[in-house]
Amino acid sequence: QQQVKQSPQSLIVQKGGISIINCAYENTAFDYFPWYQQFPGKGPALLIAIRPDVSEKKEGRFTISFNKSAKQFSLHIMDSQPGDSATYFCAAPSMYSGGGADGLTFGKGTHLIIQP
Amino acid sequence: GAVVSQHPSRVICKSGTSVKIECRSLDFQATTMFWYRQFPKQSLMLMATSNEGSKATYEQGVEKDKFLINHASLTLSTLTVTSAHPEDSSFYICSASQGVYGYTFGSGTRLTVV
User: Fold this and answer.
1) What separation in angstroms does the CA of A70 have from each of A12, A57, A58, B74?
2) Least Cα separation, residue B15 to chain A (angstroms)
3) Fewer Cβ atoms within 10 A, N terminus or C terminus of chain A?
4) Strand, helix or coil for residue A84
5) DSSP assignments along B70-104, one per residue
6) pLDDT digits (tens, 9 = 90+) for A19-72
7) Is A106 in contact with A90 (CB distance < 8 Å)?
8) What dihedral angle (degrees, nearest 10) is formed by the CA atoms of B18, B5, B103, B65?
9) Which residue among A32, A89, A94 places its CB closest to the CB of B101?
10) Contacts of A104 in chain B (CB under 8 A)
């Protein structure tokens, strides 16, 4: 059962354009929605995260839009740069709940290429 | 910011041997640490959750006798891959929790079993 569905699988955007990656989740109990950026051979790094009590969060060129009724959230990268070329993952807390923090369930990832 | 150090970054071992991977939170205490596995061009899959001083909880399909996790202190968790086989070759990544929704990831360990 895939709890977090991410699309597209790959994306090519021209430099300066807007990159948009989407994620849909199934569990309405999820209350934390992060986006991670991963470069080859490295661990993922948190880009931006949102809680469901707000519909949008912006940090620099990165914006999360959250639609609670549709159970969807998206990442927008404005003025995309070649250095943004990486794999991006959405995530949500896993189903396990043993007290304390829960592990994350990741989407399948989006390979983003920004063409100069 | 919070830093998680993972060691080694790369390891090659012979089939049948065991390999230990360390994960340390450098500037904060992590009551919960997580271990993930990532195959090439795939997503991260949660393997297990470990709380300091207690037994780890493994995700469905993960062999607890093969992937031994020890979380003996608030800053150190170890993953030991026992009797490694080529199919265990993967990228292993740890994550430490700073609170309910604060996660910091290590830089990963590339394990190759020959």
Assistant:
1) 26, 17, 20, 39
2) 23
3) N
4) helix
5) EEEETTEEEEEE-S--GGG-EEEEEEEEEETTEEE
6) 999 999 988 888 889 999 999 999 999 999 998 899 999 999 999 999 999 999
7) yes
8) 10
9) A32
10) 34, 44, 46, 95, 103
